[in-house]
Amino acid sequence: MDLLTTLVDKGLRRELPTREEALAVLATSDDDLLDVVAAAGKVRRHWFGRRVKLNYLVNLKSGLCPEDCSYCSQRLGSTTGILKYTWLKPDEASKAAAAGLAGGAKRVCLVASGRGPTDRDVERVAGTIKAIKDQNEGVEVCACLGLLSDGQAERLREAGADAYNHNLNTSEATYGEITTTHTYEDRVDTVQKAHAAGLSACSGLIAGMGESDADLVDVVFSLRELDPDSVPVNFLIPVEGTPLAKEWNLTPQRCLRILAMVRFVCPDAEVRIAGGREVHLRTMQPLALNLANSIFLGDYLTTEGQAGQADLDMIADAGFEIEGTDQVTLPQHRAEHRTAVGGGCGSHESACGGCGGCESHEGGGVCGTATAAATPTVTEPRTEPRTDLVTVRRRGAGTDLAPNA
Ligand code: SF4
Description:
Distance between the termini: 41 Å
CATH architecture: Alpha-Beta Barrel
Radius of gyration: 19 Å
Shape: globular
Bound molecules: iron/sulfur cluster
Mean pLDDT: 90
Helix content: 25-40%
CATH superfamily: Aldolase class I
Strand content: 5-15%
Number of domains: 1
CATH topology: TIM Barrel
Number of helices: 14
Low-confidence stretches: 342-354, 356-377
Structural class: alpha/beta
C-alpha cells in the first residue's frame, strides 16, 4: 500500500503524517491489518528496537474523588466496589513499588485520585519519592496526581520525580461530554507545567468512549503538538457502576489500528499500552508489542491485570526483551533534549487509568491541529461485553495481600 510506504518513510524521519493519512490507518480493512502492524512495527523498531519497558502502578490514594470523569471508577457517584483508602504511607508505597521492580519494572508510577494535590499532598508525595529512591537504586519515578498548581511541578522535580503523567484522554471537542468538573484546557495546562519544570511529560488518551475516528486523530495530533516523551494508550474498561459501563465497542483489530496510528503520529515517543490491554486486545496482545514499546506490569489502579509472569512470558515468547535500567529508553535526540531542559531525566513514560496525560511534539512536520475529517468514520460492530474479563483489584496497595508483579 502506498499509504503504508509513505507512513513508514515519515515515521523514520519524525515527520508528521497528514490527518487524512492518520484517518486512513483507522479505516484499513481486516485484510490489510497485518500489513499495517508490520509497517508501524518498522517505525517502532527503528526508534526502540525490540525493547519493552515495564512500568508499575502504585495507587497511593484510591476512590473518593470529587471529579466526575465518566470512565473512572473512582469518580464522584461511582457505585463500583473498588478499594477506597487515603494516602499510603511512604514505606507502604515503597514496599508496593519494590514488588514491581523485582518483577522487572523500570519505572514506578505513583498515582492518586482527586482533582489535584494540595501543597501538603505534594510534600507527602515528595517523602514517598524519597523513600522509594532511597530503597531502590536506579528506579525512575513518575507522579500522577491530577491538576497541578503553580510551583508544584518544580517541587516534585526537586524531590526526585523523573516524570509527570496527565492524560488529555479525548479530543477537545468531546471533552465536555466525558467530564464536566474540569476542562480540556486545565489538562493541557498541567502537561505544560510539568514540561516547563523539566519533568518528562507523559500524556495519552482513552479509546473506546464512543468517540469518532476524527476525535481520535484530533487528540493524538494534539498530543504530538504538546510533545510528551511518552503516550499511554488506554482502552476503556467499561466498569459496572460508571456512566460508560455499556460502552463495549472495541475489537482487538480496532485496538491494533489505534496503536498503529499513534505510532505513526508520535513515532519516537514511548507508546505504552495502558489500561484495557487484557480486556480488549485479549489473545492479540503479543501482536501489539510490535506497535507499543511499553506496557504496565501486573495490575492497574482499580482493576486487575493478568499475572505479572504472564506479561513476562508474553514478551519473551513474542521475541521482545525487557528494557533494563542500564538502557536509555528514548532515542538520543529526545534524551538529550530532556537533559538540556530538565537536568537529566533519563527516560519517560507512564500511564494510568485515569488522571494522567502526556504531550509531545517535534520537528519536521506540519504539526497540525484538528480540522474536518476527509475520510469517512468507520463504525466497528459493537462487541459482546466481556465483563468476565473485568475484575476489581483486591490485592496489592491498600490491602494485606501480595501485589501482582
Ligand atoms: S480520572 Fe482522576 S480526576 Fe477523574 S474521577 Fe478519576 S480519579 Fe478523579
